[in-house]
Amino acid sequence: MRTVVEVRAGRGSPMRKGRGRLDRPTIVAAAIAVARTEGLSAVTMRRIADELGCGPMSLYRHVADRDALVLEMLDVVAAGIEVPPPVTEPRAELVAVLTAVHAALAVEHWAVLPLVIERLASPRILPLVERVFVALARAGVAGRDVVAVNQLLWQFVYGELLWTHHDRPATFARQMVHNASSEQYPALAAAVRDLPDVVTDHFDQNLRRLLDGVLPGSVTASRDA
């Protein structure tokens, strides 16, 4: 089931000018609504002020700057993650936590860019990050490998979201691959010949493949399960 973050601006429709009293939740809700319909690049202090029917300086009484606004937006997304109850088996715990995060960001896909490009993050995500580290330690990942594997898992989550939810069928790269010479690149041509125009979501399967490679004894355990 997909996670949907509710905001006071509604889902996908920017707020009408002059709606209600101006406060921080109203500003954040308007910014999320704009990000959903127009992308994160459209979220500027001037754009949100125009959406709310006020001057940009009115926003600064409630939000310090754009970075602060984006952090507030990420707080809303993090608060909307349907956090699963902890389980003791490390592989199942990692699957549950990372799948919950992925489900929320698959809906609020604008949020991936500030996480990856602007290196922003909500403190609300720290309990889930802690659970990932605990699960990795319980699985036998030790020393510096814990940090490296943690990074790898989050890179996979964010990268999959960027690939699947920000891709478009008619991009130059996709056309280039589909039009590649079957004589010069036979393996590539065979692989993409029957691909659909829309990118397929392989998150669940690929997460399990990734865990097979990074968790000690995971391949054997998953085969025996």
Quaternary state reads single chain
Beta-sheet strand percentage? Answer: under 5%
Give the class-level CATH name of the largest domain. Answer: Mainly Alpha
- What CATH architecture of the largest domain do you see? Orthogonal Bundle
- Count of individual beta strands: 0
Helix fraction by DSSP (H/I, runs of at least 4): 55-70%
Q: Average pLDDT across residues?
A: 84
Distance between the termini: 25 Å
Q: What structural class results from the helix and strand content?
A: mainly alpha
In this structure, how is the largest beta sheet organized? Answer: none
Provide the CATH topology of the largest domain. Tetracycline Repressor, domain 2
* Radius of gyration, whole Å: 21 Å
H/E series, N to C? HHHHHHHHHHHH
Number of domains: 2
How many helices does DSSP assign?
Answer: 12
General description of the model:
The chain is mainly α. The chain folds into two domains: about 25-80, Orthogonal Bundle (Arc Repressor Mutant, subunit A); about 90-215, Orthogonal Bundle (Tetracycline Repressor, domain 2), CATH 1.10.357.10. It has twelve helices and no strands. It has helices at about 25-40, 45-50, 55-60, 65-80, 90-105, 110-115, 125-140, 145-165, 170-180, 185-190, 205-215, 220-225. Helix 1 packs across helix 2 and helix 5 runs parallel beside helix 8 (about 145-165). Residues about 1-5, about 10-20 and about 220-225 have low confidence and may be disordered.
